Amino acid sequence: MNELSIPRPNNLDAFWMPYSDNKYFKDTPRLLARAEGMLYFTPEGREILDGTAGLWCCNAGHGRREITEAIQKQAAILDFAPTFQLGHPIAFEAAARVAELTPEGLDRVFFTNSGSESADTALKIALAYQRARGQAQRVRLVGRERGYHGVGFGGMSVGGIGPNRKQFGAMLPYVDHLPHTHLPEQNAFSKGLPAHGAHLADELERLVTLHGDTIAAVMVEPLAGSTGVLVPPVGYLKRLRELCDKHGILLIFDEVITGFGRIGTHFGSERLGVTPDIMTMAKGLTNAAVPMGAVAVKNDIYETIIGGTAAGIEFFHGYTYSGHPLAAAAALAAIDIHVRDDLPGRVRAIEDYWQEAAHSMRSAPNVIDIRNHGLIAGIELAPLPGKPTERANRVFRRCFDDGLLVRVTGDIVALSPPLIIEKSHVDRIFTTLADAIHKEAA
């Protein structure tokens, strides 16, 4: 169907593009105009294989008819209704369907519009809970170096990616960080969970010694994606869970990337064997057809906050579009596909093939590490001397010109294709990427 041609826009000036080199793009634009299944198409109709599920989000592939029709139908019935002191049926239905997939006991769902909003909402819930249970001194939040929790001030503050923070001042007060888990000297080219690094969770003990009983919550990605695919070491998350329990600290998992099948289970916590107290999600929740995020919390957290107020509003937080009817319709349709097509099972069926294909890149020039789990892979390249990120950006552009969409973060090529991927797509992804890396080896 690549015969369809869509005109390019005449004016690229007005749109201030996010996370982009605007000057470079507007001199050399690369545009996507249509999508179907595993493919994007340029305005001229050229086919681009999607190796990133958009931005880690189109788990069921593009253009799913069921989701499109659900959105269209809902728009004709109820385009919008507020959820402040009112409700509409489909938001409650969507929350119940999400709760069917979340770990046992995390049955209360607060809707947001993005992963960033989910992160900030989760942090607020943690602070409200500690206050409601009589621990108002617990005002500190702990994140992790190289963590990414969106672009709100809360998520950026507990996040640990330097370039995301450097333009914006001091961030929130009362925030500290655990060390990241990247140990290339010991874990380079690990397949799946690396063997070394569980001890890094013990740094939480040091923070407790430093801050006493003032820590409200620890927020981490069970598998860090945006920083370049950092897979948790064996035993690391379990140890973090133990220490949070020991010290009365809530454990928050940011599952915006690992949610909805990405590593072979509904949520990453299930595959990794550790259940958090609070869990964020977005992206795959609606297959990215309508922006939506959510926060799932343990029942006792919800009951403590709700029970802490005799009457009136119990939690002064929310968004105009929380539980938006069109987003809720998209979520219901996306969850139907997720369950009916067993997207997590599809990941488990192909992940070994994916892993071997990813690690076949080890002999490519300038590849210094490969990390993978489920249907995610990170190929780390040695930076060009004095030009960090330049080598990976060149690979990104060449891949696009050769018909493959990849994502780069720093000098790492990150891959996270739609979960409907077939072996032929896997072969094409890594053949095209290997060719690009060889051509950009100079």
From TrEMBL:
One of its GO terms (molecular function) is transaminase activity. Belongs to the class-III pyridoxal-phosphate-dependent aminotransferase family. The keyword Kinase does not apply. Its cofactor is pyridoxal 5'-phosphate. The keyword Transferase applies. This is Aspartate aminotransferase family protein. It comes from the Bacteria. Coiled coil: none annotated. PANTHER family: ADENOSYLMETHIONINE-8-AMINO-7-OXONONANOATE AMINOTRANSFERASE, BETA-ALANINE--PYRUVATE AMINOTRANSFERASE. Keywords: Aminotransferase, Pyridoxal phosphate, Transferase. Gene3D superfamilies: Aspartate Aminotransferase, domain 1 (3.90.1150.10), Type I PLP-dependent aspartate aminotransferase-like (Major domain) (3.40.640.10). It holds the Pfam family Aminotran_3.
